[in-house]
Amino acid sequence: MRRLVPAIAFFATLLAIATASSGFQWDELDDEEWGFMGSSPASSPPPGPQSDLARKKQAAPEASSSPESNKLQFPLEHAFGGSEFTRAGVFTARLRPSLRGGQALGKLRLSRLPLSGAEKQAFEELLKEDGFYTIRVPANPLSPGAPFVISSIKARCLAIANLKERLDIHMDQGNIIAVGYSAGADCPYPRELKHPASWTFDTHIVSKGGEQAKTVLFNDFGLGSTADDTLGDEAMAAIKKPPPEKSFWAKYWMYIIPLGLIVMNAITQVANMQEEPGAPAGGGQQARAPAAVRRR
Fold it and tell me: Rounded CA gap, 94 and 238, in Å?
């Protein structure tokens, strides 16, 4: 009987521990089911309408990053003499980030519209009058409209070149600041009256970006300088400080060394010339002595 009491106590202890552990698991399941504070739910709650909208914004790419949204189109307009401007073609380009900030235009292309019958007649009138053929493009291609950049050329020059034209478009941070318009052939004066062999324009486009001017480090006239604002006082003093003056030896060493060699060579030659006359005299006295000995 005494041996059964410890065994019964041992089994009772195991039963109590098992009951406590099952209750603890049941509490954890309750926390996961009801989402109590500090619990880790097994499944996230269904997203509401606000989270759906935020997820759509994150999944949708920005307009500037999509391959189709960075394409840009803006018109080319022309006028014959003093007539009104009409559509002449469409420029296509791609927006790309500029190194100096903002956006710039790349891969600039022009699709020319064919000339209508009325436009051909107006061009022929310009040839007779030796008038100007004028084009214009919007200064801000991102928002086409006024103001415009205008350029003109003699119609006879285009006719001599068979409507081969060149457009030098100067841009700065995506804005067109100037357009150079020239023909694809020489047009000497007096200009010859010649009709083009074909009424199709052959356009060559050259896109040029703005160049940054050199920065002036300091101004001797006291008008101010951009370098004074960016550089410190010590740096500006080091720039304006004149270099140290060179010594006499540092300035003229290339002349002193050859002159010294010449003087030393001359002294050596003079010394040799003084020794040569005495040598034959001593030799003669030594030669006469044996002769006297022989006579005796």
Answer: 47
